[in-house]
């Protein structure tokens, strides 16, 4: 460390070393720096550590610092912070354990050989101490992130698993993470630790930004804990520890939220658990979990396919089929029209095949199904048979069936307009029985219209079923705006805030892109009926809601606005006129619902859809 800038007040300055032009001298100086830094007590140590943090984030695959001992240095600094509280409280050293753990996580997230070097350098033990909560939740967050990366690789997982407490600690952290962040940071603004605020906002924001970032970090703390547990769940010997009812029942409610939607969170872990026979039994026996899986499977969430996989595996397993069949069959029948879901091709065909096998195997042992489930499966199989028959029907006969269905549909529209909602629903059912199976656009409209009738008849489960049929039939799936809105309202009636929120947001996204004059958002204005529902469900599905209720932040329904954030008189979005829809936000029957254009050839115009995504900031 002989090369020092004449203007630099620090002997052996890391930043001056990095400017060294001679490669061999530079490497030797960096090696010496990493070896000596943990034993030094000079002021300003946080500056080179923060520089290393930036480098690790920007160049996580660069091997130079790995070869020169950065992992040994970071492990030693974490130990120093844990054992020497006087040093930790001096100058800005309190930041160092956080940066050190984050650096370890960044350098191990992509490269297995780097992870192996980290394990050999002894990083796991100090990371486990941070995971225990020896410092604060901020350090827990980066510790669980780093351990999650180390557990991902085949060569380094055994070293992580050898610390038996890691799995238990991760489970407890996944359960309690939101409450920890709420009670230790979010709840009392005047008690927030200053270095936590600095790390959250990088000194660029005030209280409001601190609160938003705290919610994001709390979600990451939970999701990264679940990711670490997921690594253990691939090994059958760890499933008994993971599959405790008190933990399993909470998994469907663990989601990344709008701040961290890129993580599969709880449903991702459930899918891994259900993939193994040892995991399916506890899941099938856990009260409420199958119903939650059905709700996720019907939703338009990015992780919908994971819930579908869980239900299919549970039904295919003779030891769990009888426990889940009454709830799983209706949900899977609703989803059987779906073709492709992202990279998952012919998903609907897979669902049909599994249900057909289920029907054929019924009556043997414990797998007897009820008449209701039998009828649902038989109706589904009959519809598939109808589709095969239609392929051989003359076009003239198909046109006659289409025309007959249109006449009945128009009769339903007339009944609806006159206020005879039950009569309209009956007519739409009749039209569905006449409408050719291949006429998907027409069937989408009929299912969507009948869903609206069921909403008005206060039958939300039937409305969800029909709206799900519609969004599955639509091309592309999960993009039929009116059906999404109707399902959002039905979920709201059942108190399913997250599901309602996701559909309402997708409805707004689709409205912003459709050519339908009834639904298009003029000048990018969000209809205020949709805005009201989104705001309501964002409060109800707020990540900290349960913690706030437990810690006195919410005493009743009327207090939710206070803890989530005061609503100003000015709207979050500019609002459009409600002339397109009823004052309750109900989409009126009309235009695309009874326009003959819906009955045109399938080769007609196709709208383009683009789903808005939110990116995770892993700072």
Automatic annotation (TrEMBL):
* Compositional bias segments (type: Basic and acidic residues): 598-619
Q: Which residues form the ARM repeat N-terminal plant domain?
A: 7-244
Q: One of this protein's Pfam families, by short name?
A: ARM_7
Gene3D superfamilies according to UniProt: Leucine-rich Repeat Variant, Tetratricopeptide repeat domain
Q: Where is this region: Disordered?
A: 555-619
List the PANTHER family: ARM-REPEAT/TETRATRICOPEPTIDE REPEAT (TPR)-LIKE PROTEIN, ARM-REPEAT_TETRATRICOPEPTIDE REPEAT (TPR)-LIKE PROTEIN
Q: What is this protein called?
A: ARM repeat N-terminal plant domain-containing protein
| Organism (species) | Populus trichocarpa
